[in-house]
Description:
The complex is a heterodimer. Chain A has a six-stranded antiparallel sheet, with helices on both faces. Chain A is globular and about 45 Å long. Chain A is an alpha+beta fold. Chain B has two domains: 251 residues, Rossmann fold; 97 residues, ANL, C-terminal domain (GMP Synthetase, Chain A, domain 3, 2-Layer Sandwich), CATH 3.30.300.30. Chain B is globular. The two termini of chain B are 38 Å apart. The interface between A and B is medium-sized, with 21 and 18 residues.
Amino acid sequence: MKVEQISIFIENKSGRLAEVTGILGKSGVNIRALSLADTSDFGILRLIVDAPAKALEILRNHSFTVNKTEVVGVEVNDRPGGLAEILSILDKNSVNVEYMYAFVERSGGNAVIIFRFDNVDEAIHVLVRNGIKVLEGEKISGI
Amino acid sequence: MLKHKQTEAMPAIWDFAAETLDRDALRTLQLQRLQQTLQATAQKVPCYQAKYAACGFEPGDVQSLDQLADLPFTTKEDLRQNYPYGMFAVPMRDVVRIHSSSGTTGKPTVVGYTRDDLHIWTQLVARFMTAAGVTADDIVHIAFGYGLFTGAFGLHYGTEAIGASVIPMSGGNTDKQLMIMQDYRSSALVCTPSYALTIADRMEQNGLNLKDFSLRVGLFGAEPWSEQMRREIESRLGIIATDNYGLSEVMGPGVAGECQCRRGMHIAEDHFLAEIIDPDTGKVLPEGEVGELVITSLSKQAFPVVRYRTRDITRLNYQKCDCGRTLARMEKTRGRSDDMLIIKGVNVFPTQIEEVLFQIEGCQPHYQLVIDRINNMDRLEIQVEVNEHIFFDEMKEQRRFVNEAEHKLASVLGISANIKLIEPSGIIRHEGKASRVLDRRKL
């Protein structure tokens, strides 16, 4: 039920983002979703890719600082209030969302949102109990 | 200390007899005081006892100043190992003041003064302030921080001894400094040379006119500065800028100071014996050569030092000065023989930064210190190469690491530092060894 996300430290200077995506592209790794948190000095790039282990190895070989984290992919009804419903459930159950970002592609008729929770197992449990569809890792990579 | 009457025509000398003493008489006095200092340290300070025993030295054997060269050195490491009071040569009931300076491991160096020590310190500060031109008519504005550092208190009591008026302003709040300087008619400014330029900048920014100020002389110390900086301070503040030298391990300000000739700082040689050594071999260098300054205190009771390695690089000139003083002059310090940096007047060792980073996540990342002087204020940036132990996918965690490191560094170093996270290999390594310091200040 968990998805592997890789995060990459990049300095806030021109061309770095292009370099990371370029390295992955040349190695045949496909980026499925992406989010960037940045400050004036540096940024944290988070990626969902089709081959996380390979991406991790390639980036490390290119001297990037890389970590992997478990995140959760959730299907959200593509209609007004769809996301709010899920967030409300999480809030009622005191599940804390560290950050989240959206997939470009859809899963069937639904949007896909990636969530980073501090307690992943507890979060999945709450989501499933409330009838929310949590995507399998393999399925996410294949979208 | 006897004061001799001076004729009107002579430039003021605070302690005429001592400061113009014939060099032969001075050497006799130095030998006598050296013997006393060696006896006292051999009797009362275990660290010195051990040093003397190790080289088979008997303090009673010293019959000439040249024999000092046979004694081992004292280093900051000795002071650190005897933290806090192990180097004191008197019981605490005789100590009336304590000061300290930053050290290599976050532990400061502690120094103490007896009542007599404070008296001599005050007299020696009065000496160099008088030599710089301060008189009883002056209003002395002290913008050093009052506290554990020796700067403010040293100058404070020296000013009172001269009979000038002290404004114990302390550091910070430049606008208020300017208001008081203008309204109270401060005529002498005491601070770091970089702060003097900050004051000049703020004057210009606030549209203040030098004519509305009464400043005429500046006494600057606690950090290295160049002749170019002196000219800039003099032209922008319309003052005579003088240099003085001291370090808390030896006493504080008053070890040496410039007269109005401004061709070197007269060392108070009746209280301190100065040697210049080759920092690599430890050999005493011939007169006039550039090397590391080593100081032996000759009159201190609470905290005597024997052959203390200051790590400051300079040169001595024993020629009689045009001002009439016979005391040797030391040149402006040219740098350090160790990796210590002086930033905003505070001693900083790269190893302190290493230890703080290590304490936080238990790893030792590559780092580099970048020191700039921006708007005449020193700025320390620590560039840290991110590795997987200190990299987080959450910005909150990443910020926490930076904030915690900055907070700890500020409390250990005593000055604020910005941490900048950079990618691995961002720091150029010289033959595999990272160059830890990039000092961009033009000193």
